[in-house]
Amino acid sequence: MDRTTPSPAWRRCTALAVPALVLLGAGLFTLRGTAFAHDTFHDCHYFGPSLRMHIAAWSGLACGLAAPALYVALRVRAARRGWRTESATASAVAVAFLLLGLLPLLFNAVEVWLLYQPDPSGGHDCSGLAHPLAGPAPYAAG
Q1: Are 96 and 88 in contact (CB under 8 A)?
Q2: Residue 89 — very low, low, confident or very high, per pLDDT cuts 50/70/90?
Q3: What is the C-alpha to C-alpha distance for residues 1 and 40, in angstroms, rounded to an integer?
Q4: Residues near 71 by beta carbon (within 8 Å), at least 6 away in sequence
Q5: What is the pTM of this model?
Q6: Which of 20, 80, 102, 126 would bridge with 44, disulfide CB 3.0–4.6 Å?
């Protein structure tokens, strides 16, 4: 092995850990949008985002931000050891996943922002024409 070639451990970590974090962040975004999408309303009452929605959104954002940080840390470590990483296939794979992971990272950031928005129905629970036409609510809002 050449002195300027990165070690197998560095290549393995770069080619597997960085894409794994990107895929985990995208998976958590998908999970929150599919499995946890119905956690906010139950029997036409708004309960707000559930704890598992918060965990999935914040974890997805953390994974999306940790992937580029890990890649930068691995590149800095390789540069300090005098390794040339520009031509490494592992580095190219990691960069490709990082570029593809920008969109899920943006979605996760918007998702976290949406967790803290007020009730989308404006306090009318299951919003629509049925509530205003039905008369006063059987319970006081607020």
Answers
A1: no
A2: confident
A3: 56
A4: 14, 18, 94, 95, 98
A5: 0.76
A6: 126
